[in-house]
Amino acid sequence: MAKLHSKKLFIKALNKKFGKDFDLAGQKVEYKRLGPEQSARKREFMEYAKKLEGKRGMTGYNPYVHAGGIPLGQRQLVPYKLSTTEYVVEGDDLHFVNNPAMQQMWDDIRRTIIVGLDMAHEVLEKRLGKEVTPETINNYLEILNHAMPGAAVVQEHMVETHPGLVDDCNVRVFTGDDNLADEIDDQYLIDINTLFPADQAETIKAAMGKTTWQAIHIPTVVVRSCDGGTTSRWSAMQLGMTFIDAYNMAAGEAAVADLAFAAKHAAVIQMSDMLPARRARGPNNPGGLSFGFMSDMVQTSRIKPQDPAYVSLNVVAAGSMLYDQIWLGSYMSGGVGFTQYATAAYTNDVLDDFSYYGVDYAVDKFGGFAKAKPTLEVAKELATEVTLYGLEQYEAFPTLFEDHFGGSQRAAVLAAASGITSAIATGNSQAGLAAWYLSMLVHKEAHGRLGFFGYDLQDQCGPTNVFSYQSDEGSPLEIRGANYPNYAMNVGHQGEYAGITSAAHAGRMDAFAINPLIKVCFANPYLVFDWGDIRKCFGQGGSREFRAAGERALVMPAL
Amino acid sequence: MAYTPQYYPGSTSVGINRRKHMSGNLEKLRDIPEADIVAIMGHRAPGADYPSTHPPLKEMGEPDCPIRQMVEPTPGAAAGDRVRYNQFADSVYFAPAIPYWRSYWAAINCRGCDPGTLSGRQIIEARERDLEAYTKKQMDSEMTDVALCSMRGCTVHGHSLRLEENGLQFDMLARTELGADGNVHYVKDQVGIPLDKKINVGKPMSEAEAKKRTTIFRFDGVPLSGTVGARKPDEALEATHHMWTLRSMWGFRPE
After folding, report:
1. Taking CB atoms and an 8 Å limit, are A453 and B117 in contact across chains?
2. Which residue in B119, B174, B231 is closest to A407 by CB distance?
3. Which residues on chain A are in Cβ contact (under 8 Å) with B98?
4. Distance between CA atoms of A349 and A333, rounded to whole angstroms?
């Protein structure tokens, strides 16, 4: 039998939540029923609502109107510790409306577009006989970083955007050609060689070849007024104008159409695919974002590659927030409940504890990361052990059970730990997915409950699609996404699937999961959100330490 | 040869209890008056007529239909009753019932019902008079411990929370209370509307009794597979593995 490592990482968080000397293992407690007054944040809400009285001309926030006047707070309203950080925030602070870092994470995705430069350079060189050199590229990038935020080039008497409102906009290039990279002005370069560990840098450059790409991040305020589908249009217009200016072209000569086609279609990588009519969204909206792309956006894999569980857990955090809280929780559903599901996966070190338990077990048994064969037998052993371990922790620590008070929360966390373990152990995302589904079945069998039935349904039929490669249901997990047929409406799954995807590659020490261009694009150190430490950034947002982009205060009267 | 359903594997008390729930072969522990159950359900006043959504089927001139000839309507359907619900929250601290097994019980043993399974609650919808009969069976039988199970139409939060000091499952709306006489009383109906009178539903089970009758696998009761470092798979776990393997292989279909 493999060694067993039970670190009980969640104890510290439970002590912070329930009180330092609290009996975490007691099965009975006196419920003091202190109401919303026990929470600093609820008090703030009530006080602010009073300030709004009269101003709004109608009633508003009042926690005493529901449940016959019995408000929230009949149990202890406990805060949340962002896993592996020292940030402790109220649950309310983790709703994306109250958390500017969460908003910025999503904004950083939807305002991003990757556009190849090589096709445009070929048009300039071969069709127009123009010379393209590092000097002309640097000049182009200087003009582009003037134009992309919304400033005019070429045209006279043109309106422009206030630089203070769009200062987060930037365009940098990255390339697999070290000679070209050396010639690009540092301020315009995402330097693969310095940002990535040497082996990862070599892998990425080999995958890219000597191609050159623009990582374009249009202003946050633009996508907050429009949507992700805007990004390629905004970007392409400014790219076209910049080419005209930088290479002294006629505005409207036929070759401009080639540049525009490249910028809008042929050389473009959207962050996510557009959705079918029944969910009608353009590209660069969360529903079309694949788990592989999400894995590559998160940068923990280059910052802490030696700890694949940590890498995966950061992807889970990013995915849970985006897929559960914003996509399913707001685009597809509405309200506030989805936050509660999602937070379980990135707070209080619970998923961390379960995952490290599993990964340590697997490393002991199989001799390292990605050493086990991706078989059903391996997935079965690991999922069973991790799930039973996690269930035992819930049972042994009633405060932990109480913390993950919904079955969907527990199911997501147990299955995610099982999937992460199996994916890291085998280096195979499908083996991770198989473990996820077995965990769900074992959990349901143990407690006789899982999530809500719509949630459970996906998992009870899920094993059949793990190894299926039929066109409408089978795909490697890397290219499944939020709109995969069986995943399209169930909270508490998609972020974890992204984490499992990441785990397979983190276990193999891969430089990227599916797309090296996405990985490098989000290595840009000048993105507003910190893509290296997702949970810390959420904590900063919840603690009101995070300054998001896209604010309009500059052009409004002061409060 | 007549088929005898096996229902569930395993020789532990949990396996046996799960089979009892599924088969409907449950021990009756108490006899709560029908009027009290109707009051707790809160859909109609005890003694009031059943509201209906359509005339009795016999008066409706039903079409000639082989399905109708084969399936005898339940009393509620025959009378045209509206569809109403009961919903129970069961504590993870050894409540006798668990949501899936409430659903299995209902689906196997109760005609014309629609069970819904969630983690913190389990709902059964049926024609009103049928539902009242099903509810009485649930509340009178070993499926219910009055401290650890309670009828909650909304605000069900409690199944995973620590128990109150007096052993009752937490309820934000405090629909039940433990009387000085040691009996549990409903003081509100299942959606939290105060009742005209307290309804005595009897004494809670002792902890040992609850553990004996529970259907939940727990490490500190009957574990599904031993404990950390000392695994010993129950037959239920082996059956689960078997199903998972077959489902995975069926999806792959290597032929």
Report:
1. yes
2. B119
3. 447-449
4. 28
Mode of pairing for the β-strands spanning B113-117 and B122-127 = antiparallel
What integer pLDDT is reported at residue B254 of this predicted model? 63
- Asked whether A387 and A445 are in contact (CB, 8 A), the reply is no
Tell me which residue of B120, B226, B187, B38 sits closest to A388, measured CA to CA: B226
Show residues of chain A in contact with B160, CB under 8 Å. 401-402, 404-407, 410
Report CA-CA distances (Å) from A373 to A378, A431, A508: 7, 9, 13
Residue B44, SS3 per DSSP: coil
Q: What is the architecture of the domain spanning B13-222?
A: Alpha-Beta Complex (3.90)
Residues of A in contact with B18 (CB under 8 A): 448
Cβ distance A448 to B216 less than 8 Å, yes or no, reads yes
A88-89 and A80-81 as β-strands: parallel, antiparallel, unpaired?
A: antiparallel
A389 and chain B: CB distance < 8 Å anywhere?
yes
Residues A360, A354 contacting (CB under 8 angstroms): no
| DSSP state for residue A428 in the 8-state scheme | -
SS3 B89: strand
Provide DSSP, B124-183.
Answer: EEEEHHHHHHHHHHHHHBTT--TTTEEE-SS----TTSPEETTSPPP-TT--EEE-TTS-
> CB neighbours (10 Å) of residue A132?
18
Task: Report how far Cα B250 is from the mean position of its chain's Cα atoms.
Answer: 33
Contact B160 A395 (CB under 8 A): no
The one-letter code for the residue type at B7 is Y
pLDDT digits (tens, 9 = 90+) for A440-499: 999 999 999 999 888 888 999 899 999 887 756 778 999 999 988 888 778 899 999 999
Instruction: Find the largest Cα–Cα distance for chain A.
Output: 82
Give me the residue from B116, B118, B236 closest to A445, CB to CB: B236
Is the alpha carbon torsion for B120, B122, B128, B134 positive or negative? Answer: negative
| Structure tokens belonging to residue A440 | 């769900």
Q: Do A396 and B99 touch (CB under 8 A)?
A: no
Interface contact A466-B251, CB threshold 8 A: yes
Domain locations in chain B as residue ranges: 13-222, 225-255
Question: With pLDDT > 90 as the criterion, what percentage of chain A qualifies?
Answer: 87
Closest B-chain CA to A410: B119
Q: Which of A350, A378, A409, A447 to mutate to test the interface with B (most CBs of B within 10 A)?
A: A447
In this prediction, the residues of chain B whose per-residue pLDDT falls under 50 are none
Q: Is A60 a catalytic residue?
A: no
Do the chains contact at B162 and A389, CB–CB below 8 Å? no
Give the residue from chain A lying closest to B188, CA to CA.
A68
Q: What is the pLDDT of residues A285-333, one digit of tens each?
A: 999 999 999 999 999 999 999 999 999 999 999 999 999 999 999 988 8
Q: How many CB atoms lie within 10 A of CB B66?
A: 7
Identity of residue A472: D
List the structure tokens of B92. 């993870």
Annotated catalytic, A490? yes
Return phi, psi of residue A34, to 5°: -85, -5
Are A453 and A441 spatial neighbours (Cβ–Cβ below 8 Å)? no
**Domains (range + CATH), chain A:** 19-94 (3.90.390.10), 118-266 (3.30.70.470), 286-516 (1.20.840.10)
Dist. CA B164–CA A158, nearest whole Å = 69
